[in-house]
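Researcher: Go.
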Amino acid sequence: MTIMFNRFRRIFAAPIFEDEEMTRAARILNAFGWSAMGVIFIITMLRVATGEWLSDSSMFILPLVIFILALTLFIIHRGYVRIAGIFLVASTWLAMTYQASQSDGLRDVAAISYLTIILLAGLLLGWREGLLTGIASLAAMWYFAFQEQQGLRQFEADPPLSFARDLTAVFIASGILIYLLIHSLNRSLSISNLELKERLRVERKLQLQAQYLTALHETALGLLNRLEINPLFESILARLSELLDTPHVGIDLLLSDESALKQELGRGVFESMNGALTYKGVGLTGKVWERGMTILTQDYSRWQGRNPDFVDVNFGPVLGVPLKSGVKVVGTLVIAHTDREKKFTPEQVILLERFAALASLAIDNARLYEDAQKEIMERELIERDLRSSEERFRKVFHASPVAICITTLEEGVLLDANQSYWNLTGYDPKTSIGKTAAELEMWGTPQERLNFVEELKQKRSILNPDNQFLQYRTGDPRHAIALYEIIELKGQFCILSMFYDITEQKQTQDALRSAEARTRAILASIPDMIFEVSKDGVFLDFMASAGITPLMPPDGFIGKNIMELFPPAIAEQTMFSLERAIATGQLHAFEYGLPPGEEVQFFEARIVAVTPESAIIMVRDISQRKWVETEREKLINELEEKNSELERFTYTVSHDLKSPLITIKGFLGFLEQDAASGNLSRLRSDIKRIADATDKMQSLLNELLEISRVGRLMSPHQTIPFIDIVQEALEMVHGRLQENSIQVRVQDEMPTVYGDRRRLVEVLQNLIDNAAKFTASQSQPVIEIGQQGFEDEKPIFYVRDNGMGIEPVHHDRIFGLFNKLDADSEGTGVGLALVKRIIEIHRGRIWVRSEAGKGSTFYFTLPTGPET
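Model: Structure:
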């Protein structure tokens, strides 16, 4: 039964469409169709039952109307609602018009049904179709009226009951339409009311969402414009408080070692927790970190995962959101209400999640800001360099005196060239651009260019130091240095050719080579280092000297200050001279030695102003000149000493040689007297005296000859153990030492010396012999030989005796030529002078320390190696 009932209900039910307006029209058509069919069917049955078919048209029209209504219902079930409406209105209007025309015209009930058809047209099809139907109905009624007025139509009055019956059917049909209209209007109003309420609710929701989005947009702009991290935290929390209407907000970030979250900043009740650490899984923020998702509790005091440290905090709803960089949690945002009546809505949760995404982006942005700024600066520098490079290339290309042209690699089509190229080659730019190398006759044969291109492809660059060709217009021979390189322009390989005209240079090549050689020789011979220095003492440029090794590489000077590189005294002198040179425009020069205090190397600095802001400092090594000056002074002093010594020598020689001569001369007179008197014994005595004077003169001359040989006749110097020299000298004076029973004490370990072995043995022999001579009178004569200390890195040796000693007043005199403190002692007085001469020739020094009656000690120094 239920199935049958449902099938029966589906037959009478109106179809439902996606379009609401089609569904409404289908419902009206369905209700009107079934209602009208039922009314007409009843009227038809009544007429059939009573036998009151008034006309043939009625017998035709009523079934026709029923058929039209049935067909209309069929059409709307097929989905053609508007077509069904048009069909129903047009068919029923035509049927009623036909009925009226065949019956009583204006006075027929069919004419009254026009009102129902007009209502139906307006309700189903719209006001335009309703208006059109009304106009057509008025036209038909006026037509019927005109016919009746002209007597063209006769009517018969229906019985009252029949007329009332037909009129009742029309009223019923019109009532059904009016009911459907009112019901449709009420339904539309009800739907509109529901839609209005829903729209208002949606609008309120959209307005709230718009407010959130506006605030979120403003927040995004504010956060992304914050590039310092602490002001960014302040801005994040301020925006968060404003968006969710609570002062209790906080932000935690992950530590660098990812061991815990640290609250970077908090507001409200979270302000007291700044710096607090939260570990993974502990409390709400720890669980947000652990899960990587939003956590909301509307009552924190009852939440099982609350942090034990915050139990006393009077929180109501608490909301935590992760801050992520990609998929990694880098921090959390936490927000709370202390008012338990307030709750967080789903929209606020979504808003906070979006806000957290923006905050994460802003934090990443702030952290990457410095890197971005650095990269931007680097890019700007690169772009500026590229623009500068392009500008330089453009200027070089068009303004360079070097002839430059660009041709395609394969065909040799001339693409571009500068003015120098046209001047050099004689080609016309108007007629040459775009032509190939063959057309311009650049090469002798096509094969030559093919070989050149193949070589260029292999080497990528070719330099021809002497490219010879004939100028196009005049045929004059030209010489140029040619450089060819492959470049890529707009995806096409081309040849960049550069030609430097050396035609005139070729004519003077020999002269230039000679001049270059002279210039190179001059530059190589300049002994100066040249610096360019600012007035503040900063080195701007540096040209090294082949003769001077600088303190550091040239790069070490550039950009440094004089005060940083030189000792204070030299730096101050340099700055003073620099200031004076720039102020006066005159040359200032000064000398200095390095290192300070030792002055091993000497320099001369000359300073001359170049501009009001800089000067040139030329530094020359004058160590050799200083050495020459020093040596000159030494030589002058030595010469003066030699002259003095020569004067003393001349005086001494003249005096000491004069004495034997006087003796000889005097005794020669005695010889004459002795010969005349025949006194042979006296003659022999005088002859002996003359011979002794002659022997003495011979000894003096031999000693003088020996002194003159010192420094002139020297054996090759060698390194000798000093103990060997001592032993050899002792062997030579062994007889005197043994004769006088003199004890000699020699130090065991003594350094080696460097010199003439024979002369050094002579020094020790004279000193030991001299000591033995003046200790012979002692009861226990002793001579000591050894080494004690150093002087100027030279060992100090000594020969000490316990003899008669020397008064200090004679310490310098004893080293003079022929100076003898005891005229009766043996010897000529040349020995110590000879020793002093040999020691000085070996770059040493000799001196004596002695007092009368306390013995003497002769000290002397000797080198241990050759002079550097």
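Model: The longest helix spans residues 160-224.
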